[in-house]
Amino acid sequence: MTADRPPLAEGIPDRLYGRRRSHPLRPRQQRLLDETLPRLRLAPEAAGDPRAAFAAPVEALWLEVGFGGGEHALAHVEANPGIGYIASEVFENGLCSLLSRLVAEGEEATGPLPGNLRLWPQDARHLLGLLPPASLDRLFLMFPDPWPKARHAKRRFVNPGLLPLVARVLRSGGEWRIATDDPTYQGWTAEVLAAQDRFAVPPPATARPPGWPPTRYEAKALRDGRQPLYWSLRRLAG
Fold first, then answer.
1. Catalytic residue among 145, 182, 197, 224
2. 145 catalytic residue (yes or no)
3. Other CB atoms closer than 10 Å to residue 224's CB: what's the count?
């Protein structure tokens, strides 16, 4: 087991994803991965003291699991300059989407980057295993892959086997936000959360709460007539 991939709980698959790329990268996208991503990447050895990885002292530490196109992550980064934000995504096309919003063409290696953002371009579950206990103040899971087939249920991030790992790194009183428009994932999430005692679980909202930036996945769900649900969990003491 490598240093950036600590062991996961028994019964949890080694990864949540299939492909890392949905279509061939254009030259600009490849330059973003080669030149810009290393400037923002959170090194595995830095995960033991994550607040020190940012350009300036941070007031709190937030993590987004699977940021997709990056619009939700960047909205928080811009609105909360004192927060250290770690955005995790394995898909190269999503990484390129976020990076392309940050630097102009031709400035991949030199353009200014937000000092309060770090990227983890690997499975977020392995990062959770590297972070210190109670180090996160907020965790975001926005419209994750629902893995709708029953045989793939263990690949879902909301999973009984992963709840202890999430609870370990989220401080007492810390918030875990979950949003999904998939009926199967909604029912699964409600079932999993009802059977645990690490988080306080108010009923999910049916409209995006204040302070939750929109995402392209939410917009598509609403256009297609699907009703998203929005959970805001709080880590219980102990």
1. 145
2. yes
3. 8
Full 3-state SS string of 74-120: HHHHHHCCCEEEEEECCCHHHHHHHHHHHCCCCCCCCCCCCCCEEEE
Q: What is the pTM of this model?
A: 0.91
pLDDT tens digit sequence for 172-200? 999 999 999 999 999 999 999 999 999 99
Tell me how far apart the alpha carbons of residues 12 and 124 are, in angstroms, rounded to a whole number: 13
What pLDDT, in 10s, does the model give residues 5-63? 544 544 444 554 445 555 788 999 999 999 999 999 999 999 999 999 999 999 999 99
Superfamily the domain 27-235 falls into: Vaccinia Virus protein VP39 (3.40.50.150)
Task: Number of helices (H) and strands (E) in the chain: give both, helices first.
Answer: 8, 7
Residues facing 231 on adjacent strands: 178
H-helix or E-strand spanning residue 30:
helix 27-31
- Enumerate the domain spans of the chain: 27-235
